[in-house]
Amino acid sequence: MRRLATMLALAAGFGAAANAQEPAATGQGNQVVIEDLRTPTSPAFVVLDVAPASVERPEKPKALIANLLSTAAQSEGFPKNYALEVAPYWLKSHPNLQFENYQRPSIPQSIIRTLTLSVATAPLVDPEAAEATTIGSRLGIGFRTTIVGGQPNPRMKAVLDDLHNTNVRLQNELDKTPPDEAIVKKLTGESEALGKIIQSLDQQRVGWFVTAAVGQAWNFPADSIEQQSRDRWGVWVTPAYRMLACVRKIRDAGDCKSVIDFIAVVRSTGDADDDERDWDIGGRLLWEPRPEFTISGEFLRRRSTEEDRSSTERTVAMLEYRISEGLHLFGSFGRTFEDDDTRRTLVSILGVSLGFGANPTARR
Amino acid sequence: MRDFKRGAEMADVDTTGTYTVGTGNGEVKLAVIIGEGQIGTTRVRVSGIELVTATGPVTVTVGKAAAIKGKSVFVRTIVNDVNSLTNDMSVTYHFSGGPSPQLKVAKGKVTAEGRLLIFEGTFSLA
Predict the structure, then answer these.
(1) Counting CB atoms within 10 angstroms of each CB, which of A144, A173, A265, A274 has the fewest?
(2) What does the CA dihedral A25, B86, B35, B45 come to, rounded to 10 degrees?
């Protein structure tokens, strides 16, 4: 995880009985954190349990081929610590894809346009050795797509109208002989700012969403294809519904920034070597009264096919407040999954996160 | 912000061409399509006279073939990068109504998220 987080233990717990704490976003072991409720962006990284420092993201077929050839040549065999993400649809140009259709795709169009492939490799470490000894390589491959992508944000129309008016003024200035460069520059800046707002609103769509992802990892002892074996796998399906939470007058004016999200999750993970698998089913209700403040509650039930493990549940309430860019106050309280070793279940944390370049944790 | 060219040449992507309109009384039409999921504002002029300014796809009647033969069509499209999945941009010019339709695609790419490019097309009507 790229976030460099410093947690200050402002309060060790909300109650004297607090006997278990967890980092806000570690994703390790038996703990499920907020981000775990999302369909992973890169399922290949998740099944490999890696967080690559750099990820190749080629945008054109030539770049993709050059990247693969270069990686193969440099690695002299199985690529080490390689990570790739690619969206096949966007590798080529689409001159007929108009904005309106991009905003309101059909289900097949949404699946194709949002499909991403993630590939990663990592060293295969001997689990029996006292010190970390690499005995081969691991490979993870994953796919992710958005099946249903919601509807355009209601604010979109007003911003498009503003963009039209600004661009018309820019057209008028460009028609002059010669155009005033200062005015052109000013209007260009305004137009580009509106373009960025439209991009941002495109990330804040409303209505129904369904995202899905699958990932599979393989082990290659001695980097031998003949000895390969299947390792961890995961399947995620995340239906969600987002609605604006404002009175009609504000909503109609296009000024509503308060949203309510309901996110459900169905997730199954397991190892290919045995038939055991974990099923997580649950959901989260999130209220974002202002863009900088979120409050949410989640319930997750974990069922394992392992004979000696019973079902366990997690019920946690969380809040997060963005004090300033990169500075977040967060807290969570509730009951998490029963740990096989410690039997500790209480979640109780209040902290401050100093992040660089990462989003707040409480985001859909 | 977009890098500016000095002087009157403000276009980032220039396209030129000739469309044969023939000699009949058929109406010649021009469709301007902004691709790659981007949005933009197009202005179409025929021999200096503005026909339309609109945001999104544009279809305009240029005129009857016999009346517009020898004139030129100027199309300027300000394309904004509103698609976070690609920085590619394209503008398709589709003429119809003459002896045969004609399609031209102009392509560009912004160097940073949210920027804009100015596409200009100049077409002689023969």
Answers:
(1) A274
(2) 120
Measured in angstroms, the CA of B17 and the nearest CA of chain A are apart by: 19
Residues in a beta bridge with A83: A120
What gap in Å lies between CA B79 and CA A149, rounded to an integer? 24
CA of A191 vs chain B CAs: smallest distance (Å): 8
Chain B residues within an 8 Å CB radius of A185: 1, 4
> What residues in A contact B1, CB-CB < 8 Å?
185, 188-189, 192
User: End-to-end alpha-carbon separation of chain A, Å?
Assistant: 17
Query: φ, ψ for residue A187 (rounded to 5)?
Result: -65, -35
What's the N-to-C CA distance of chain B in angstroms? 39
Q: Helix, strand, coil: what percent of chain A each, to 5? A: 25, 35, 40
B38, B45, B51, B78, best to mutate vs chain A, most A CBs in 10 Å: B78
Q: Give me A67's structure tokens.
A: 């990247």
Could you tell me which chain B residue has the CA closest to the CA of A170?
A: B78
Of B85, B90, B113, Cβ closest to residue A90: B85
Rg of chain B over Cα atoms, rounded to whole angstroms, equals 15
For residue B67, the one-letter residue type is A
C-alpha closest to that of A56 among A114, A46, A66, A90: A66
Record: contact B39-A99, CB cut-off 8 A: yes
**Count of C-beta atoms within a 10 Å radius of residue B120:** 19
Q: Are strands A83-86 and B27-34 parallel, antiparallel or unpaired?
A: unpaired
Q: What is the pTM of this model?
A: 0.79
Angle, CA of A290, A293 and A298, to the nearest 5°: 115
Q: Is B114 on the interface with A (CB under 8 A)?
A: yes
CA distance B73 to B62: 8
Nearest CA in chain B to A166: B41
Residue A222 vs residue A105, higher pLDDT: A105
Q: Is B1 on the interface with A (CB under 8 A)?
A: yes
- The whole-angstrom distance between residue A118's C-alpha and the CA centroid of its chain comes to 13
Per-residue pLDDT at A76 exceeds 80: no
Q: Which two tokens stand for residue B17?
A: 């061409």
For A9, the token pair is: 């233990």
Residue recorded with tokens 């061409």: B17
Distance CA A259, CA B1 (A): 31
Select from B76, B82, B90 the Cβ nearest to the Cβ of A99. Answer: B82
Average pLDDT rounded to a whole number, residues A141-169: 95
* Chain B contact set for A101 (CB, 8 A): 37
| Predicted-assembly ipTM surpassing the 0.90 threshold | yes
Residues 6+ apart with CB under 8 A from A229: A218, A219, A221, A272, A273
Cβ burial, residue A293 (10 Å; 0-12/13-18/19+): middle
